[in-house]
Amino acid sequence: MNLFFRNKRVTGLLTIIPENERNFIDEMSNFDVPISRSLKLKEVMGYDKHRMVEPGVCASDLAVLGLQSLISRNLLHSQDIDAIIVVTQSPDYLMPSTSHVIQGRLKLKQDMICMDINQGCAGFVMGLIQSYMLLDQPAIQKVVLINVDILSSKVSIQDRNSYPLIGDGASITIVERSNSTEEFSIYANVKMDGARYDSLIIPAGGFKQPSSFKTAILHEVEEGNFRALDHLHMDGSAVFNFVQTEVPKMIDDLLSFSGMKQEEIDVFLFHQPNRFMLEKLADKIGVPYKKMPMNVVEKYGNSSGVTIPIAITLNYKKKLCLENMIACCAGFGVGLTWASMIMPLGYLKFCESIEYPNQLDN
Amino acid sequence: MNDIVLILNEICPELDFSLSEDFINDGMLDSFDMITLVSTLDKKYSISIDGMDIIPENFKNEATIIALLRKNGVQL
């Protein structure tokens, strides 16, 4: 599905990353494979460090810290927020929505829209699409898009498929109608395939299969990994194949829809599952590696919908405050969902990262 | 010993690949080893094996790996 928007902009971006850092080297003994094999995998996939929240920290904690930081520095005025969109797979509660919790904790005005979207690795693009749709309403001038996931507690420490790469984090993206006289267009492409819903899934904990003593028991599964039904399950081969098959096609379709040539794109901001997968995508699409950041997983881990904002604040924080770039964003993952967007990005009021400190009182 | 077996031995030194005709079903190569192998082959032969070709069928034994390399223009 092709989508088209006009004259909406990202005007600020903040990422919130837990201070608590883990190292793959220290975790290798959790996996039932020779150390030499793990070391080779570290090199190929980019496994190195990842950030995880401490037990008890929830999604709204990261978001509230980030919003308080912006509000206290006058980078965001709380009365200007007309909508909060939270994109997460790790909400504070099954109900109410985490966006309501954040609104309440910050004592924001009632004359606003709070909504949660259950999306993962495509969540940044999906959140922007929803933000742009809301901004078509005259009453809505400013949307706060929050991507947050703290899935580390839902990953088995003995699952080599997911534990070494998981990361927690949050981002706050301010999305507004452009005041500039310059007209510009935003192009997006979205596809979904619920027939493959179980390729990435946490089987227990919802209403279909509530968590219980039984769902917490670890079982040996494929390739010597151990997981419980309460844990995230990723069919690594199926997901890898899905990405390599669908994403290059999606980028071709998006470029055709926009009428732009690949050379006109300044930066390809793709979700960051691991370095190997990104290199293969870049090779297939024909994008030079220097135009596609791939350094998020090795520093912070894969924080699903937050990896694109982290790629931005990690690699372009100074540049994007001073100039404009044409960015092609792409996210792909749970659902399955694959979504992409070509948009101007730049002249940001702020583009920075802060840490969520250890042992902070909530 | 040929190049492919040497590379496999480097990835999994504890295994003898010359004894198997089906590395996957014999449990010698898992999906992560396949990725490590692809990365090594890409570098050694200056190629980029298509992500859609990273499927177990192409890594079953020495012959299927050689066929994959030939598909990528490697002369063996």
What do you see in this structure?
- The complex is a heterodimer of chains A (362) and B (76).
- By secondary structure, chain A is an alpha/beta fold.
- Helices cover 28% and strands 27% of the residues of chain A.
- Chain A is built from 10 helices and 17 strands.
- Chain A has a 6-stranded mixed sheet with strand order 6-5-7-8-2-17, with helices on both faces. In chain A, strands 1-9-16-15-14 form a 5-stranded mixed sheet, sandwiched between helices. A two-stranded antiparallel sheet of chain A has the order 3-4.
- In chain A, strand 11 and strand 12 (226-227) form a beta hairpin.
- In chain A, helix 3 (59-72) crosses helix 4 and helix 6 (236-258) packs parallel to helix 7.
- Chain A is globular and about 60 Å long.
- Chain B is an all-alpha fold.
- Chain B contains 3 helices and no strands.
- Chain B is globular.
- Chain B starts with a helix and ends in a 5-residue tail after the last helix.
- Classes of the chains: A alpha/beta (362), B mainly alpha (76).
- Chain A binds chain B through residues 33-34, 36-37, 40-41, 43-45, 160, 223-224, 236-237, 240-241, 243-245, 276-277, 279-281, 283-284, and chain B through 11-14, 30-33, 35-36, 38-39, 48, 50-52, 54-56.
Characterize this entry briefly.
By secondary structure, chain A is of the alpha/beta class. Chain A has ten helices and 17 strands.
List keywords for this structure.
heterodimer, A: 362 residues, alpha/beta, six-stranded mixed β-sheet, five-stranded mixed β-sheet, B: 76 residues, mainly alpha, 3 helices, globular
Ranges of chain B with pLDDT <50 over ≥5 residues? none
Roughly what fraction of the amino acids of chain A lie in strands? 25-35%
Output the helix-strand order of chain A: EEEHHEHEHEHEEEEEEEHEHHHHEEE
Mean pLDDT of chain A: 93
What would you call the shape of chain A?
globular
**Helical amount of chain B:** 40-55%
Number of strands of chain B: 0
| Low-pLDDT segments of chain A | none
Question: Which structural class do you get from the secondary structure elements of chain A?
Answer: alpha/beta
Distance between the termini of chain A: 42 Å
CA-CA gap between termini of chain B: 14 Å
Rg of chain A (C-alpha, Å): 20 Å
Please state the CA-atom Rg of chain B, rounded to the nearest Å: 11 Å
H and E string of chain B: HHH
Outline of chain B: globular
What is the number of beta strands of chain A? 17
% residues in beta strands of chain B: under 5%
Going by helix content, strand content and strand pairing, the class of chain B is mainly alpha
